[in-house]
């Protein structure tokens, strides 16, 4: 465990949150831009789902490959190098002139974004003591709130007033600023390099051992299920609101802003509740509470716009509320020496689940002759069913502490679990 001052720790956490903010914005902004992208390239909801999934699938595969090398580099150097590639990927998205080029650019973005997510969580695991890791994870998760409050609304407004590519130009500028701040604030994190690293000939067998470890498999399954449940619904909210309920694309920014403002304040609170009452208990409660808004948004009646603005905070708070304790629990699963590799593999499964959820959801939808999107209610019921399985499955996820012999635990050679 590294020792840095509390002030440096706070600054580092918020820098990582801002880094995560740009990654999340890059992924999230595609969803409210769905109506414009579908119109610009004359594509169907299923094709749009493929564009969302392309990012996630490539992110998952690159994250899985990263598990073979992430623990071989200084975290600082790896973070800055991959983040520079991430900025270039957003420039490629902005310059895409056809749907195939956009798909290729999104794949490039996914390749870089998949590695960044695992590097960020590995840094948290290296620097933050386990007793405060839930709150730290909540701080990182505020990136989703910041993206919803500022990033996505700004992107939607730029897209409405200029074109769909404008938000990606914004991301390029923001990424350059964050990269410079990272160069100044992220310390060298190379203590893990003092441990023996497997030879190249051992990498794939080691990865296979990592993937088939029963404790890891249970954690990976939970991640995959919850991301499928999440992304069955999320990508299609904006297209459905525009096509079925007459919401103007520019008005979508206020919905995301209202929801993001609420989650900005609740993410860290949920993290503290997880630290206090246990990650599994808080996860289950949030999962059950999230079923109602999921079913409501997928069976949405015709409501005035102000009612939608009031509803979105409840929806986003409860959806993000089940992710914070889950992420905190997952940091306790691996042994410290394998944390980077485990989190890379878990990030890969998270991205693959995201892509599969969006793709399956798109396949379940169709367009009516009048342009309305059909089948969203069925998608909502499937999402609830998958999350319900995850709610019971979480009892199978255990931290590394439970795998240690009692004598090791008495020596304090443990890793906490939620």
UniProtKB/TrEMBL annotation:
Does the record bear Cell membrane in its keywords?
A: yes
Q: Which residues form the Major facilitator superfamily (MFS) profile domain?
A: 12-402
Keywords in UniProt for this one?
A: Cell membrane, Membrane, Transmembrane, Transmembrane helix
How does the record classify its membrane topology? Multi-pass membrane protein
Q: Which residues cross the membrane?
A: 12-34, 46-66, 78-101, 107-128, 140-162, 168-186, 219-241, 253-270, 282-299, 305-321, 341-361, 373-394
Where in or outside the cell?
Cell membrane
Q: Which Pfam families match?
A: MFS_1
Q: Per its UniProt entry, which superkingdom is the organism in?
A: Bacteria
Q: What is its main location?
A: membrane
Task: List the protein's name.
Answer: MFS transporter
UniProt organism field: Paraburkholderia solitsugae
């Amino acid at each position: 465990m590294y020792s840095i001052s509390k002030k440096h720790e706070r600054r580092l956490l918020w820098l990582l949150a801002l880094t995560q903010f740009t990654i999340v914005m890059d992924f999230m902004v595609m969803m409210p831009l769905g109506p414009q992208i579908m119109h610009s390239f004359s594509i169907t909801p299923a094709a749009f789902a493929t564009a969302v999934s392309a990012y996630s699938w490539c992110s998952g595969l690159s994250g899985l490959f990263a598990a073979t090398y992430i623990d071989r580099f200084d975290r600082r150097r790896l973070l800055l190098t991959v983040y520079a590639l991430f900025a270039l990927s957003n420039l490629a998205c902005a310059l895409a002139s056809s749907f195939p080029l956009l798909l290729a650019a999104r794949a490039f973005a996914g390749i870089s974004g998949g590695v960044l997510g695992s590097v960020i969580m590995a840094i948290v695991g290296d620097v933050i003591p386990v007793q405060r890791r839930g709150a730290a994870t909540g701080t990182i998760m505020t990136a989703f709130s910041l993206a919803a409050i500022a990033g996505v609304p700004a992107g939607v407004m730029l897209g409405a007033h200029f074109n769909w590519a404008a938000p990606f130009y914004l991301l390029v500028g923001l990424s350059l600023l964050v990269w410079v701040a990272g160069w100044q604030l992220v310390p060298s994190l190379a203590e893990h390099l003092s441990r023996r690293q497997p030879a190249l000939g051992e990498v794939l067998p080691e990865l296979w051992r990592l993937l088939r470890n029963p404790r890891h498999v249970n954690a990976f399954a939970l991640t995959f299920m919850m991301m499928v449940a999440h992304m069955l619904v999320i990508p299609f909210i904006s297209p459905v609101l525009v096509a079925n309920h007459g919401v103007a694309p520019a008005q979508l920014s206020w919905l995301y802003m209202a929801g993001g403002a609420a989650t900005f304040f609740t993410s860290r609170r949920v993290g503290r509740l997880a630290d206090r009452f246990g990650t599994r208990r808080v996860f289950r409660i949030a999962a059950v509470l999230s079923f109602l808004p999921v079913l409501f948004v997928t069976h949405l009646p015709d409501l005035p716009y102000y009612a939608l603005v009031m509803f979105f905070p409840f929806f986003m708070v409860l959806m993000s509320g089940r992710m914070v304790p889950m992420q905190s629990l997952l940091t306790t699963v691996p042994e410290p020496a394998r944390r980077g590799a485990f989190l890379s593999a878990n990030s890969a499964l998270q991205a693959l689940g995201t892509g599969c959820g969006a793709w399956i959801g798109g396949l379940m939808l169709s367009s009516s002759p009048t342009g309305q999107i059909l089948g969203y209610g069925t998608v909502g019921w499937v999402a609830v069913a998958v999350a319900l399985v995850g709610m019971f499955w979480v009892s199978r996820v255990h931290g590394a502490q439970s795998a240690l012999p009692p004598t090791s635990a008495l020596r304090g050679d443990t890793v906490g679990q939620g």
